[in-house]
UniProtKB/TrEMBL annotation:
Residues 23-276 form the EAL domain. This is Diguanylate cyclase. Coiled coil: none annotated. It comes from the Bacteria.
Length: 278
């Protein structure tokens, strides 16, 4: 029994070591993603339920690593945030997305561009300068840009957050609260945040057809948004049934696999055409 215990212990020990070795390897590679040009941006269409047309896209980053394969942002964004690598990475994503928006615009494809902003980026004292510089450099209109923030970025210091949001709004950018309802934001704060969009989180959309609680939440978010003069986007829509309920609730926009997965830029125009035609 003594021998067994020892073996078990060293097994876990090795597991831990290999986990932290992986993390260190990942972190080292992550530091080089930009110089090695290993990041790419995919775009997922956002559809207006009123018109059935694609009105915009959300930019979603991917890391195509020769060693680790396609690494999900769920895996590397937290690491990038801890190491502050998210600042240059986030800036690269924003610039890439803005350039792409301008390119599509020149081809006659007018789409709003939603870009996710980490709370680390949001708290950076040079955020406004950086965004202004990227808009200038790419020639993108701020009115076409929508920045997606999670509640956690806003609630820590609500007064400071309000001030930053106001500056972003005065540039002309839209502001979406991502994953709305999953965090801890109080409704009292929401009233003071100059937010333009609430995104209904996928966890509430998933069981919309079968869970009356989820339906009540989705309905409340739509009502709240309407009353506060904000728009609603439901994310993670996969089934016709969910779509029908969201339409009935008066949700304005949807994103989800039912229309399209996030795709590379060169595939997007054909997808927009198909959705709009269908
Ligand atoms: P998010 O901003 O909530 O993005 C929505 C996620 O849901 C995306 O995952 C998207 O691919 C996925 N999705 C869209 N429609 C469906 C659907 O119908 N069904 C299902 N099951 N999933 C759907 P993705 O691309 O893996 O991104 C995960 C998260 O990583 C994002 O969640 C966002 O928080 C973060 N992220 C992605 N790109 C960036 C970025 O450029 N910057 C920052 N800071 N975070 C990013
Ligand atoms: Ca998002
Ligand atoms: Ca989301
Ligand atoms: Ca999410």
């Amino acid at each position: 029994a003594k021998g067994e215990g020892k073996n078990t212990f060293s097994f876990f020990d090795e597991e831990l070591n290999s986990a932290s070795r992986n993390r260190i390897a990942l972190e080292q590679r992550l530091r080089q993603v930009l110089e090695k040009n290993e990041l790419l941006v995919l775009y997922q269409p956002k559809i207006s339920l009123a018109t059935g047309k694609v009105t915009g896209v959300e930019a979603l980053v991917r890391w195509n690593s020769p060693e680790f394969g396609m690494v999900s942002p769920l895996r590397f964004i937290p690491l990038a945030e801890e190491t502050r690598m998210i600042i240059p990475i986030g800036e690269w994503v924003l610039e890439t997305a803005c350039r792409q928006q301008v390119l599509w615009q020149e081809q006659g494809l007018s789409l709003t561009m939603a870009v996710n902003l980490s709370s680390v980026q949001f708290k950076s004292p040079t955020l406004i300068e950086r965004i202004t510089a990227i808009l200038d450099k790419t020639g993108m209109l701020a009115e076409q840009l929508e920045l997606e923030l999670t509640e956690s970025a806003l609630v820590e210091k609500p007064n400071e957050a309000t001030w930053i949001l106001e500056q972003l709004r005065s540039l002309g950018c839209g502001i979406a609260i991502d994953d709305f309802g999953t965090g801890y934001s109080s409704l009292a704060y929401l009233k003071n945040f100059p937010v333009t969009v609430l995104k209904i989180d996928r966890t509430f959309v998933r069981d919309l057809a079968h869970d009356s609680g989820d339906r009540a939440i989705a309905q409340s978010v739509v009502a709240l948004a309407n009353n506060l003069d904000m728009q609603t986007v439901a994310e993670g829509v996969e089934q016709q049934e969910q779509l029908a309920i969201l339409r009935e609730l008066g949700c304005a926009f949807v994103q989800g696999f039912i229309y399209s997965r996030p795709v590379p830029a060169d595939e997007l125009p054909a997808i927009v055409h198909t959705i709009t035609a269908g």
